[in-house]
Amino acid sequence: MREVRIDTPSGALHARRCRPGDAEGKGSPIVLMHDSLGCVALWRDFPARLAEATGREVIAYDRLGYGRSAPYPGPQPTDFIEEETASFGAVREQLALERFVMLGHSVGGCMAAEIAACHTDGCEALVTVAAQAFTEPRTLAGIREAERGFAEPGRMARLEKHHGHKAGWVLEAWVETWHSAPFAHWTLDASLAGVRCPTLAIHGEHDEFGSLAQPRRIASLTPGPAEPTILPDCGHVPHRECPERLIDAIRPFLTAPTSA
Q1: Cβ distance 107 to 84 under 8 Å?
Q2: For 14-51, how does the pLDDT look when each residue is reduced to its tens digit (9 = 90+)?
Q3: Prediction pTM value
Q4: Residue limits of the AB hydrolase-1 domain (predicted)?
Q5: Segment 75-97, tens digit of pLDDT
Q6: Cα 128 from Cα 186, distance rounded (Å)
Q7: What domains are defined for the chain?
């Protein structure tokens, strides 16, 4: 496992590279995109486990404003999902990623789809996990409930453990952006229609932030399996709730001839 820094015009990004054992890895690396409150550290041991299971290098990076990356210069814009393609461009260039697989969790799945659509020359497969394809009441209600939970003793301290002084910005960016007027009718449809690589949409059966209509929309608008993979008895965070089953769903998809 190796820590690296990536320079961007707005500040440096923190990234971590996990290789399978001592090997270089076979096949294109998998790039992980974290969720709205996430960061590299909150993937826990999932990157290492995924690297071992697939034999591929796994790269995770903290988006600007999150984890150990530089603070975001101002409020988060409402086009932050599309904007992430610029940061990924720096990641791709500085890590020399000619070919790669995108895997994103929650809003990171939305970003992974945007990147797949913008980098069709290099993205050979896309995996979304608990991603949103449109704004629905369950998403907004789940965010409000989570926001109330941060008033409990110790909750903000746990967020600060991973984001430091940026924790307040991270929480506000999540809550306020999703409840803003531009997000009332937001959809990922245009970007999904631009994806050219095989796509696997994975979703927990009991995801508290998105109904099963979300992965079905993703699957219907992208190449790959016509139906999403639904993980029984699982909520919004499969890489913590059922990592073995998540990896078992990803591994055969990445070894299929169309995803090689």
Answers
A1: no
A2: 999 999 986 777 899 999 999 999 999 999 999 999 99
A3: 0.96
A4: 30-249
A5: 999 999 999 999 999 999 999 99
A6: 18
A7: 2-259 (3.40.50.1820)
